[in-house]
Amino acid sequence: MIDKAKEIVSAAKTKMSDAVKFLEEDVKTYRVGKANPLIFNNVVVDYYGTPTPVPQVASVTTPDAKTILIQPWEKKMIPAIEKAIMDANIGLTPQNNGDSIRCNVPPLTEDRRKELIKKVKSAGENAKVVVRNARRDAIDALKKTQKDGLPEDMEKDFEQDVQKDTDSFVKKVDEIVSAKEKEIMTV
Fold first, then answer.
1. pTM of the predicted model as reported, rounded to 2 decimal places
2. What is the CATH number of the domain that holds 175?
3. Is the pLDDT of residue 122 over 90?
């Protein structure tokens, strides 16, 4: 029974950790006024009938702080990549020179900054919901193991471990959100 309870706590911690990792990766893709090639991870281009992220069909680099350079591995992909960038509505206008696509990153407007902060806070709340759901599921599973023979005091100890993990991961989510907010508001 103790091993099963430890597995439950471990599984909950893994779910919580995954939620935080997902949040970290998600907020990296937000454009915050400086060139960041990661914003193209969510831009999908039609590559021979298969929806494919831009970084998988082209080299995406930042030659300077305000420019992103996209060099497709096949020149015939240039129009498709341009169309995908426009369709993605990420606030960048692609400029085609025949060999590559250049995107100049404009400074963020105040409205766009506020919109991004709302988006970051929403993503943070979603991550917290996942963490809390993992806690709830773990506590329910621990109560079932108590009915199956786990001593009540041990079950309470495991519940406290799950709660400590929950508090820790919620704090990490808050730190990620506040760091991204600060980055967005920095002009």
1. 0.72
2. 1.10.132.20
3. yes
